[in-house]
């Protein structure tokens, strides 16, 4: 089984978000970039398929050279090879088009992406990729088993979960639950050394029309001060929620 | 040229988000000088969408669609969009709508923007405001394709009753085969989900252990609220992952969010930031949550919450 894990290069969850150039660009100054957490759960599940079922695992990112340390980290965790599509990730659709080419050329059976990236939160790349390549698709996936070409997956739905059966080729939108937080791997020295020797192939992008374009950003308006209520005077809180906030 | 909107139902009853997306679609249609067509699948009383601004409802009645399937539903909406020659398609941010949206976008060759929070500021170029960086910011995004697909962030627009009426037409799309089959659905029917809840009551490590969760559940019951938890609580296994809210968990966009024993890490606050009113109860007055909340009580959850539950019970009884 050939697995491709899509890796988004995103600001660490603790990052302060700021913008530059007249609020048109994300300010990367001082920001630590990491593997998108939803992708990391998928990568770790892919490692399980590699170790238990003999799958091969490649990782891919669509982005400039600055994303390579993130791909190297994925190699250090245990992926076999990395691919970087050398173009700016403008929007979800352009990223999906680039990935579709990689998936078709590489003949991958299973593609695991995060259900969404934690920067732009579009939540569209895995579904678009599945539709473009004609693969089956399960998102918000919290459990995945593969047996031959058959797959059993669990999808989180609003207020519960559903179990589905499907088959390869398959695209997964993964999240926590695919593996547990405690299963995530921190690259060790040996992994980091080996990652330096693993192939990282740079491929040039295919033409893709830009369908959506972010022209500016803003931060939420600063919040007013909290209204403190005395712990001995809970009636006051009920009163405020009813008469002032009007939420009860 | 028209606006088409997919309206979700469950066991034949429209969900609240269905009325919200129709209200929102109506606002866009007014701006464009056109009308709203809704598509409803196996829903009772489709004409009721007229009250929120739909002029026409395409009613699909097909037993093979009783269980949600992203590919089949996307195909039905795609066919409806093409039949109506619609150039704006509106969906909600439910798990199901977010599942089908990218498939629909590819089928319609439509530019898709999710997590949209306002009516488009401009229709040429078509520009929408959406959340980004998990609610730490907003982006203004242009959609440059002929057909535009918008995923509306839940609870960002609200319901607007216009008192209109809608004509209902039967619509019979060709349903394609899907390679994904639902084997079983495991859903608590007596509990309100975090996505649909008007009120969410959430607990953190300050509750000291899973055995104390009755505190959260009792309060949630009085408020008909969903229960949620912080990341450490789910990582410790005190509560299921499905209750984890925050940047890597579920987003919350409720009217009221009550955080109990949660300090308010930046990742947690990002995930719940879209909630309209936030209340924090924490022993530590320095907890970062107090900077993000509207109302706060510095106090011990084990003393404050039972009193709050009783007071709310009395309040509800009085105002029932």
From TrEMBL, chain A:
Family recorded in the similarity comment: Belongs to the ETF beta-subunit/FixA family.
Organism of derivation: Winogradskyella alexanderae
InterPro entries for the chain: ETF_a/b_N (IPR014730), ETF_b (IPR012255), ETF_beta_N (IPR033948), Rossmann-like_a/b/a_fold (IPR014729)
Pfam short name (any one): ETF
Domain Electron transfer flavoprotein alpha/beta-subunit N-terminal: 23-212
Protein name, as recorded: Electron transfer flavoprotein subunit beta
Top-level taxon in the UniProt lineage: Bacteria
Keywords: Electron transport, Transport
TrEMBL record, chain B:
Membrane-crossing segments per the record: none
One Pfam entry name: ETF
Start and end residues of each Electron transfer flavoprotein alpha/beta-subunit N-terminal domain: 3-182
Domain of life: Bacteria
Keyword RNA-binding tagged: no
Keyword terms, alphabetized: Electron transport, Transport
SMART domains given in the database record: ETF
InterPro entries (alphabetical): DHS-like_NAD/FAD-binding_dom (IPR029035), ETF_a/b_N (IPR014730), ETF_a/FixB (IPR001308), ETF_asu_C (IPR014731), Rossmann-like_a/b/a_fold (IPR014729)
Lipid biosynthesis keyword on record: no
Family membership noted in the UniProt record: Belongs to the ETF alpha-subunit/FixB family.
This protein's name: Electron transfer flavoprotein subunit alpha/FixB family protein
């Amino acid at each position: 089984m050939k697995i491709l894990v899509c890796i988004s290069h995103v600001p660490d969850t603790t990052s302060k978000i700021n913008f530059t150039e007249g609020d048109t660009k994300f300010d990367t100054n001082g920001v630590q970039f990491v593997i998108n957490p939803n992708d990391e759960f998928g990568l770790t599940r892919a490692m399980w398929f590699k170790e238990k079922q003999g799958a091969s695992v490649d990782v891919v990112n669509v982005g400039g050279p600055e994303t390579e340390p993130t791909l190297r980290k994925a190699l250090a965790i245990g992926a076999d090879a990395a691919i970087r599509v050398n173009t700016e990730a403008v929007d979800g659709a352009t990223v999906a088009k680039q990935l579709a080419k990689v998936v078709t050329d590489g003949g991958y059976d299973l593609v695991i992406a995060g259900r969404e990236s934690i920067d732009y939160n579009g939540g569209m790349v895995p579904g678009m990729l599945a539709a473009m390549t004609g693969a089956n698709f399960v998102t918000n996936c919290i459990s995945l088993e593969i047996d031959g070409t058959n797959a059993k997956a669990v999808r989180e739905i609003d207020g519960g979960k559903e179990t589905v059966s499907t088959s390869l080729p398959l695209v997964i939108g993964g999240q926590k639950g695919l593996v547990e937080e405690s299963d995530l791997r921190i690259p060790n020295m040996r992994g980091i050394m080996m990652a330096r020797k693993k192939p990282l192939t740079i491929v040039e992008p295919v033409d893709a029309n830009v369908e959506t374009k972010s022209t500016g950003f803003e931060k939420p308006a600063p919040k007013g001060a909290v209204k403190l209520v005395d712990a001995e005077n809970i009636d006051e809180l009920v009163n405020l929620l009813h008469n002032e906030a009007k939420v009860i | 040229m028209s606006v088409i909107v997919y309206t979700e139902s469950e066991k034949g009853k429209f969900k609240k988000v269905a009325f919200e997306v129709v209200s929102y679609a109506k606002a866009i249609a007014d701006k464009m000088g056109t009308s709203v067509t809704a598509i409803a699948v196996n829903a009772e009383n489709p004409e009721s969408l007229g009250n929120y601004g739909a002029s026409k409802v395409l009613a699909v009645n097909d037993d093979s669609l009783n269980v949600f399937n992203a590919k089949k539903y996307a195909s039905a909406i795609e066919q409806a969009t093409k039949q109506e020659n619609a150039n704006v398609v509106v969906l909600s941010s439910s798990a199901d709508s977010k599942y089908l949206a990218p498939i629909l976008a590819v089928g319609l060759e439509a530019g898709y923007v999710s997590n949209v929070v306002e009516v488009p500021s401009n229709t040429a170029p078509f520009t929408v405001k959406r959340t980004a960086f998990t609610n730490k910011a907003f982006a203004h995004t242009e959609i440059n394709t002929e057909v535009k697909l918008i995923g509306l962030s839940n609870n960002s627009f609200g319901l607007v009753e216009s008192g209109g009426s809608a004509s209902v037409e039967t619509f019979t799309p060709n349903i394609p085969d899907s390679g994904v089959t639902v084997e079983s659905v495991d859903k608590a029917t007596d509990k309100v989900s975090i996505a649909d809840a008007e009120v969410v009551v959430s607990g953190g490590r300050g509750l000291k252990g899973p055995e104390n969760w009755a505190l959260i559940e009792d309060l949630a019951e009085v408020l008909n609220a969903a229960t949620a938890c912080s990341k450490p609580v789910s990582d410790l296994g005190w509560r299921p992952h499905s209750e984890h809210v925050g940047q890597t968990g579920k987003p919350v966009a409720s009217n009221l969010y009550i955080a109990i024993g949660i300090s308010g890490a930046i990742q947690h606050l990002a995930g719940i930031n879209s909630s309209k009113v936030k209340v924090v109860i924490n022993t530590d007055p320095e907890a970062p949550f107090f900077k993000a909340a509207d109302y706060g009580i510095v106090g011990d959850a084990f003393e404050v919450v039972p009193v709050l539950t009783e007071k709310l019970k009395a309040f509800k009884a009085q105002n029932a």
